[in-house]
Prior knowledge:
This protein is 25% helix and 23% strand. Strands 1, 2, 3, 4 and 5 form a five-stranded antiparallel β-sheet that branches. By secondary structure, it is of the alpha+beta class.
Amino acid sequence: MDDEGTDDGYRLEASFGPYALRERNDSLHSRLNAKPAGSGEETEEFFWASAGCPGDGPRALFQISPQSATSGNPSFARAASAACAQRAAERHDCADLQLWPAPSCRLNVA
């Protein structure tokens, strides 16, 4: 088997407690601290969600981002990230899962 990695596809991340706080503080996406869930300004394929975990710590953070320009499947990114966030939140007994808003419908009227 070839050990060479690829930059195609997506990166899914789940962060809890101080790790979630660090991710928010170190992120290039300024809106991670402003909203419990959303999508990136520069790409329609970067999404984040959050959930309240037991105790008084910061909200858990769930992210998905494309690894290359060829990833190009926002529908898949939304579905994969939602499934990952739901499973991780359940495993950690987190509640109040907040997912990003549904995409807006664009109509072209002549």
